[in-house]
Amino acid sequence: MSDTARSDPAAVPPPDPVFPDPLPSVVAPNRSGNFIVRHWRGEYSLPVSYWLVGFLVSIVSLVVLKAIGPALTANLDYDPTRIFVELALLWIGVVSVTTWQFVGIWRSATHYAARRRRDGRGTVWAVLAKIAVVLGVLNSTVQFTRAGVPQFRETFKMAFLGDPAMPAYSLRVMRDNSEIEITGGLKFGLTEDFEKTLREFPRIHVVHLNSVGGRVGEAAKLYHAIRDKGLITYVDAACLSACTVAFAAGRERWIAPTGQLGFHGPAFPGFNAAGLASAVTMQKTLMVASGFDPAFVDRALAVPNTQIWKPTPQELTAAHVITAVSDGGQFAISGFAPGITAEQMGEQYARFLPVLAAIKARLPDEYRSIISLLYDDYSAGATRDAVVADARRRLFPLIARYRAMADDSVLIDVADLIIDQYTALNQSDPALCYQYASTGINAAVLKQMPAPLIKRELALEQRIIETAARRAPVDEQQTKALWRVVGIALTASFSPDQIAIVRAPHVVPGQYAEYCAVTSGMLRAIVALPPSDAGILLRSMFAGKN
After folding, report:
1. Which of 14, 55, 427, 471 is deepest in the core (most CB within 10 A)?
2. Which long-range contacts (CB under 8 A, 24 or more apart) does 483-486 make?
3. 185 beta partners
4. In terms of domains, do 301 and 409 share one?
5. What band does 168 get if pLDDT is binned at 50, 70 and 90?
């Protein structure tokens, strides 16, 4: 920056340094000895106001803003009202100090410009300082709008409106007061209510977690409450987001075959990943302390909050996230919405049991009876095995009653399914195959049955109900003739002694495999007939089993 030329060349002062005024403060009448007041009035030189005060205040503001993250995501004393007050105080402090900083620099620049003009010199540094102040004010306004306003809005709703963005939570004690289910959102007050319930029902040793997630601070409180009591955690449906922090607390950690854990990093309005670093650190600390593989935790918390990662049971087991997958007999069935009605439960069951929808449409009384049974089991805290067993005890006789009335094509598909079921069971356990072929399906057979075959069976049960109708009687002579054709086909593949096993009153264990093989061969011979003839024999067989 150069000075304005004067008439006397000898009087021209030497070129200015960056800031020509000395660093000591300007001598001013009635100036205050208070540093804060003096800067506010602009009594310090521009270098002191701009570089020293501006730099220090910027550092302090940065430290304060970094403290906001831990205040929002921290600790065992998670309290939305306290968080709101702390956030308000922090932002009021930042805004106040920043305003004091900018006003002081502006006034110092004004004083600097006045002295320079009085001496006939340029004021470019004062202009640049004021431009910097204007830009700083704009930047601070943008930052507060992007960060402070969303933070205030969110914490206000958390503290004073009951955190409406989070679903209401619900606690349900079940299975003779030995298990408790937590559903809904993890928000303030949950852990306190949970601990009260534990005091009221001291026999509780299992916590079902079926939640979409919630506040990380409340999840951390719940984590310590579960861990301090040495409880088992279990997921029947889904435990997502912050819920996985609470799940990690279990001394044993189980999921149902259909249960899912969902992971992603934390989020809070107004914060970026750097601002949420404290929440990430806290979650990782708790999960690793519970035995989770650190590499798994890093991967889980690196998932953006807009996405979710649902690892397979194999991945969860390998990373020591779960102890085991339940076979359906260890824990009460759970995972339904709080306050669910029998009708609502029926609608949910019908999504994976299509036969229920068919029964509801064609046999409404039977439907109500079945759903009432399922609802009573759920209310009583029955295990998944018990619920499935009760449902099948009601469904099997119903399906058997209408199976002989189904269309020919359905009957042939049923026979093909039974052949595949016999084959699968005979390969793994001939005794179970014999049980199924001779007396019908039971719980042990169901557990051994491959899932794809169960899925096919459920689909066929729906078709049986949908196509069931009264059929014209079949001539007995025609039926006998068809059985003779089947008998001839069997003799081509099996010896008379093998065929005799099927007719024997007692079958010894060593003959179980042959019994299943001959029975499967008979069904194959039937389905090889023309469809109408196959339908006659299958309808005759199934009618005889009712």
Report:
1. 471
2. 483/537, 485/525, 485/529, 486/522, 486/525, 486/526, 486/529, 486/537
3. 213
4. no
5. very high
Strands 238-240 and 170-174 turn out to be unpaired
Beta bridge partners of 240: 262
Cα angle, residue 207 at apex, residues 203 and 191 outer, rounded to 5°: 95
Instruction: Specify whether 513 is located in the same domain as 457.
Output: yes
pLDDT at residue 30 in the model: 54
- Report pTM: 0.77
Percentage of residues of the chain with pLDDT beyond 70:
90
Residue 359 scores a pLDDT above 60: yes
Angle between helices 54-73 and 149-160 in degrees, nearest 10: 30
Backbone angles phi, psi at 173, to 5 degrees: -90, 135
Task: Supply the DSSP string of 226-241, one letter for each residue.
Answer: HHHHT-EEEESSEEET
pLDDT band of 70, cuts 50, 70, 90? low
Q: Name, in order, each residue with C-beta under 8 angstroms of 212's C-beta and a sequence gap of 6 or more.
A: 167, 184, 185, 238, 240, 241, 243
- Same domain? 396 vs 410: no
Domains of the chain: total:
4
Quickly state the pLDDT bin for 29 (edges 50, 70, 90).
Answer: very low
Are both 412 and 528 inside the same structural domain? yes
Q: Residue 251 is part of a domain; what is its CATH number?
A: 3.90.226.10
